[in-house]
Design brief:
Family: Belongs to the unc-13 family.
CATH class of the largest domain: Mainly Beta
Keywords: Cytoplasm, Endosome, Exocytosis
Subcellular location: Cytoplasm; Late endosome
Strand content: 5-15%
Organism: Steinernema hermaphroditum
CATH superfamily of the largest domain: C2 domain
Helix content: 40-55%
Number of domains: 6
Main location: cytoplasm
Distance between the termini: 139 Å
């Protein structure tokens, strides 16, 4: 051996580890991987794992910053938190994450292969190397085109052997005796054979053998013996027998020989070939009676002398011998030893056949010949068409054969071991797999069994030469790969391997030694899975998807193995898979609990020990939702229920034991002491509450509708008293923190944001957030007490917010933001103002706490227990609303103070806008005003929260609305163009404050009464007189049509328009249910009829009906005619006024109604002329909705039409 390959070299040491357990396991399990952990680089694996973990954490951190603008824990003043010893934080801080294993087997990579210095294992390693080279040198069958040097080079790289040792071992492989090549034949069936018997069937059987090549035949002839050859020569050219019936003795061999001699050589060499037996071995199948489609399913094996020249030949004959069976003839054939005896036997058969050939019929059914060099290395299975032996033969049909080559080694130095080929195949698979993994550089778990072409070719050749069936190869793959689970081989890949093995296995397909090997492998895998199941709570990190998937695939593979018939055969009488899983889960939970108790033991503080125990159990329970779906997928086991029940039982027993302890400071004594209202035991109180929180978290993992042993514990009252005591302490500490936060207030700047804040608001929001988070985790067993404490909590939070707001605004006033502010304010004071209102707004937002208080759920429990209507929920919500309103008012007052300092400037700009020349565009006239507004907004829009920025806009709008309204009121009755200009200006300002959706929403504008009133005034004032009048009557008509009840009665009229005479005919029929206006409870009604608007019908008279005395349902039955053109003006209608006649005083108004002329037949499409149509008009009293129109018209003193309209409204009929 070269110096490079000495037993002390690093390379030898590396290879030695790979070969661990390979030399001494011949009688045991084939395929222990040995010390596979040495194949990996823990530093590389842990580094990769750390990198992945770092990336995941950084992603989470970025998401957190995007979702939440302010992280209270990051910006809160640590001095404020430390002032009370982190009183709130110690309850709500998340527990440190479980320390995860540095080495993840799923991420291991192979960096080198090594073995130890054991000489025996080095020898085994070299023997395996020689076996691989031997397989390459003696390739069998028609295989891939990969050259021999390439295959040898691959083996050298896979075994990491230097050139010197490689050449030495290659020479050793070449010196080994070549293997004996075997041809394996599986005679399956035939079809469509020709019928030879009188019954229309045949009784087919086959004879087959190996036909030597020309050179081999000549050599065999020389060995046949002189006596036999001389006798053959005497007969000269030999004629093949026509039928096997010519000689009963040896008839089987005779037939086969006849066909065989026909198939080989030419006529010129017929005499020479007749001198010897053409087949080295001849074997016959069984007879299948009365069939043309026989099925044999028989196997035969022949020794091949020369694969390159030998041929396989098979005849099919019809058997008609009733006195001697074919099997007897085959038996006689099998007793012949050596070619001399075989030749003599064939000679006798041939002579007998020749003697009686004239009296026999030909029962030949066909033959098949195939060159052995054409047999693929993987074998072949196909239908072969039967051939004729001569032109006289009548042949049809096909025969289905399966042929494959294998070898048998007869090396002198090899011990007799039936499993040697299996063991070598296992080691080769594993060696090549480790090499492929190492070359890929990927983790072991990524390997899916894909080997390179050289490795596949070598393994394929080794399987052929070892006569390993597909079942044996699948078994070897399982034995090889299942031994690699310690270095992280994928269980998903193992599942595929095992599935293939199980699908190929059939009973009795493996011998006893092979089944024993599988048994040991199954037992080892079983033990591994049980061990992994026992430690899964500690070893499997649920935060790592790869580990969960690996565990899931392990369980899937384990289930497949346990429930397979192969496992039942190897390990019978086992309990069910689900039963074992159930037992293991219970046992593992118990062991885990013992481990927890051991690590949490604290003799000085039993409360702290209990807290550590429950908290650790919570970590295990938190994983249940990850494991439970896995177990439900592959078993009928409820993982969560089993685990929690065991933890519940063990924890209950532990607590009972601790509570019954007779130690001085036992658990029960400490818990009672901490819950007392008097005394200074804050540290112990905190520990008790931690136990309470941990116990509450433990309860959350329960499954519904189940009974648990911990339900019987009487901790509730102890915890309730502790919570009441904590609430009192927390209130004091919270106000103390607010005071200190205001004293230590400082400006904070958040990255990528110019919004002004100070640290005090963060501290206050942090206090409220912590307060609520702790309260949400508390569970007060007494519902009434919880309702009282909830109300108390809300009051405390609201007082904290209000106290903070008062302090902030007081400090702002101290800094100069008070009194009558000047128009110009320094930027420093602006920043202080922005920080103050932003702080208040942030605190206001933190008061959205109704979801965290679970008020509806608590209310239901409260009323269910007390059977009374609860008032505390209304009080709690009112308290929150009142506090929210107070904070909003303080913000708005502060902002309003800022905005009102510019009233004088804004009033001046509005005046100039109103009286700017009409030639000046509105936008130009508005520019001084919008510039002033924009300058104010620009000063704060980057430093204010959006809500506060919109509040500033609201304040400006609230200032401008009175200014515009004042402008209208001070200038009544002007031309409409004046108001139209103001209307356009306000529309521009509305868009300005809307800011494309980023400012005040249009919906919000509609909720401002002053805005709606201003828009209405401007819209009316910019309208012409006639349009206002028309709109006035349209509104009254709409009001009439929208009435839902008849409060003032109904007027019945008929009307039509005669287009020929252009006459409108109105027939006043009567009225019903007129309101009583006289003291006698009746009325004296009459109706006034006029066409409106009067401006459109100035020449039409006003008509009246007769007076019907003392009636509420008068009948008038009078007709009136109005000569008007057919074109109806806008808003044209008939106005009916019902009056009550009074002799001594003015007539009283009883109601009015309107008839739209467009509905009268004869006008347009209303109907056919001269057809009276009755209308039942509901009487109405005009509402104040039109008062604005009347006021506008009244203000137009110089407008004659407007004044005439106003006068008509006051006419007394």
């Amino acid at each position: 051996m070269s110096e490079k390959y000495s037993t002390n070299s690093p390379r030898t040491a590396a290879l030695r580890n790979v070969m661990a357990h390979r030399g001494n396991d011949r009688n045991g399990r084939a395929g222990s991987i040995g010390c596979c952990q040495s194949l990996v680089s823990p530093q590389h694996a842990s580094g990769s794992s750390a990198l992945n973990r770092m990336r995941r954490r950084s992603t989470r951190r970025r998401l957190s910053q995007m979702q939440k603008a302010i992280n209270f824990g990051q910006w809160a003043n640590k001095r404020v938190q430390a002032s009370d010893g982190y009183f709130f934080e110690q309850f709500s801080q998340p527990q440190p994450e479980e320390k995860e294993s540095d080495t993840d087997t799923g991420q291991l990579t192979i960096v080198k292969l090594s073995i130890n210095d054991n000489k025996e294992r080095i020898q085994v390693f070299q023997d395996l190397y020689v076996e691989a080279l031997y397989t390459i040198v003696h390739k069998v069958g028609k295989s891939s085109a990969l050259p021999e040097p390439q295959l040898c080079k691959y083996v050298q790289n896979a075994f990491q052997v230097d050139d010197g040792l490689h050449q030495k071992l290659l020479n050793r492989a070449k010196k080994e005796k070549p293997p004996i090549v075997l041809l394996n034949i599986s005679l399956l069936e035939a079809r469509d054979l020709i019928a030879k018997d009188i019954n229309g069937f045949s009784d087919p059987f086959t004879m087959m053998g190996i036909v030597p090549g020309s050179r081999r035949t000549k050599a065999n002839d020389s060995e046949a013996g002189n006596g036999e050859q001389d006798e053959a020569d005497e007969h000269g050219h030999e004629t093949p027998p026509l039928s096997p019936h010519s000689q009963k003795q040896g008839n089987v061999l005779h037939r086969f020989g006849g066909s065989f001699r026909r198939r080989i050589g030419s006529k010129k060499s017929a005499k020479t070939e007749a001198k010897s037996i053409p087949a080295k071995y001849i074997k016959a199948s069984s007879v299948q009676y009365k069939t043309l489609n026989p099925k044999w399913n028989e196997k035969f094996q022949f020794i091949v002398d020369d694969v390159s020249t030998d041929r396989f030949h098979m005849d099919i004959w019809d058997h008609d011998d009733e006195e001697k069976s074919v099997l007897d003839a085959v038996t006689s054939l099998n007793h012949i030893t050596g070619l001399k005896g075989l030749g003599r036997y064939f000679k006798e058969v041939t002579q007998s056949a020749r003697a009686g050939s004239q009296d026999c019929t030909d029962d030949f059914l066909g033959c098949v010949t195939m060159k052995l060099k054409d047999v693929p290395s993987a074998g072949c299975e196909d239908w072969f068409t039967l051939e004729k032996r001569s032109e006289r033969s009548e042949v049809s049909g096909q025969v289905r054969l399966k042929l494959w080559l294998s070898t048998r080694e007869e090396r002198i130095d090899q011990q007799d071991d039936d499993l040697m080929d299996v063991r070598q195949h296992i080691e080769l698979i594993r060696q090549f797999a480790l090499h492929e993994i190492r070359m890929s550089g990927a983790p072991v778990s990524f390997f899916n069994g894909q080997l390179s072409d050289p490795a596949t070719t070598i393994l394929h050749q080794h399987a052929i030469q070892g006569d390993l069936t597909e079942l044996h190869q699948s078994m070897c793959q399982w034995l090889a790969y299942s031994a690699m689970i310690n270095i992280g081989i994928s269980f998903s890949f193992l599942y595929d391997i095992l599935s293939r093995l199980i699908s190929k296995w059939v009973p009795l397909a493996l011998d006893k030694d092979e089944e024993n090997t599988l048994t040991e492998s199954f037992q080892a895998f079983d033990d591994y899975c049980k061990k992994a199941m026992m430690g899964h709570r500690t070893n499997v990190s649920t935060s790592k998807r790869t580990q969960l998937e690996s565990f899931s695939n392990m369980l899937r593979c384990w289930k497949l193995m346990r429930e397979s018939p192969l496992y039942e055969k190897c390990l019978p009488f086992q309990k069910s898979f689900d039963y074992d899983i159930n037992a293991i889960l219970q046992k593992s939970a118990e062991e885990y609990f013992r481990h927890v108790i051991k690590h949490a033991e604290d003799n000085e503080n039993p409360c702290k020990e209990l807290y550590q125990v429950i908290q650790t159990l919570n970590k295990a329970c938190a994983k249940m939702h990850k494991f439970d779906p896995i177990f439900k997928t592959f078993t009928d086991i409820n993982y969560g229920l089993i685990t929690y029940r065991e933890f519940d039982r063990l924890l209950d027993e532990y607590i009972c034991s601790e509570m019954m302890s007779e130690k001085k400071d036992d658990l029960k004594t400490l818990m009672m002491t901490a819950s007392k209202t008097e005394g200074d035991n804050e540290e112990l109180l905190i520990t008790i509450l931690r136990v309470h929180f941990a116990a509450q978290e433990f309860r959350q993992y329960r499954l519904p509708r189940q009974k648990y042993r911990l339900d019987k514990s009487d901790w509730g009252q102890i915890f309730d008293r502790a919570i009441v005591k904590w609430m009192d302490i927390a209130r004091i500490k919270a106000f103390g923190r607010v005071e200190l936060a205001c004293q230590l207030d400082a400006t904070i700047q958040i990255a990528s944001s110019e919004i002004r804040h100070t640290s005090s608001y963060v501290d206050v929001c942090h206090i409220i957030d912590q307060y609520l988070a702790i309260w949400e985790r508390m569970n007060v067993s007494d519902v009434i007490l919880r309702a009282d404490l909830t109300e108390k909590l809300v009051q405390c939070i609201c007082k904290i917010a209000e106290f903070y707001v008062d302090r902030v605004l007081a400090q702002l006033a101290t800094d100069g933001f008070c009194g009558q502010l000047q128009a110009f304010i320094p930027s420093a004071l602006i920043n202080l103002f922005c920080a103050a209102v932003n702080n208040i707004e942030q605190v206001r937002r933190s008061l959205v706490v109704t979801d965290k208080l679970h008020l509806d759920e608590l209310l239901e429990q409260y009323e269910q227990k007390t059977q009374q209507k609860a008032q505390w929920k209304i009080e709690v919500e009112s308290e929150l609303d009142r506090c929210d309103k107070y904070l909003c008012e303080q913000i708005e007052c502060t902002i309003d103070k800022l905005a009102r300092r510019q009233i004088a400037i804004l009033k001046k700009h509005v005046f100039h806008l109103a009286w700017s020349p009409s030639a000046c565009p509105v936008e130009g006239a508005l520019k001084p005003l919008t510039d002033t507004l924009d300058a104010e907004l620009s000063a704060v829009h980057r430093t204010l929260l959006h809500r506060n920025f919109v509040r500033v806009m609201h304040a400006q709008v609230n200032i401008l609305l009175p200014l515009f309204d004042e402008c209208i009121e001070e200038n009544p009755g002007l031309e409409p163009v004046f108001y139209q200009r103001l209307y356009e200006a306000w529309s521009v300002l509305t868009d300005f404050f809307h800011a494309g959706g980023k400012g005040i929403s249009l919906e919000t504008f509609e909720t401002i009464p002053a805005h709606m009133e201003l828009v209405s005034k401007l819209a009316l004032n910019q309208m012409s007189t006639i349009r206002i009048i028309e709109q006035y009557y349209k509104n009254l008509l709409k009001e009439q049509n929208d009435v839902s009840e008849c409060k003032y009665g109904i007027l019945n009229v008929r009307a039509y328009y005669n287009s020929n005479s252009q006459t409108l005919v109105v027939d006043v029929i009567g009225a019903k249910q007129v309101i009583p206006l006289d003291t006698n409870g009746l009325s004296d009604p009459f109706v006034v009829i006029e066409l409106v608007p009067r401006l459109r019908y100035p020449t039409q008279p006003v008509s009246k009906t007769k007076i019907v005395s003392k009636s509420l349902n008068p009948i008038f039955d009078e007709t009136f005619e109005f000569h008007i053109p057919p074109k109806i003006p806008t808003g044209g209608m008939v106005h009916f006024i019902v009056m009550d006649h009074d002799f001594l005083r003015s007539n009283d108004f009883a109601g009015e109604a309107f008839l739209d002329l467009t509905e009268v037949p004869g006008f347009g499409t209303a109907g056919v002329a001269n057809t009276l149509r009755q209308f039942n008009l509901i009487l109405i009293h005009p509402s104040n909705s039109n008062k604005g129109m009347v006021d506008v018209l009244a203000s137009r003193k110089e407008d004659k039409e407007a004044q005439n309209f106003i006068r008509t409204l006051s006419v007394a009929y």
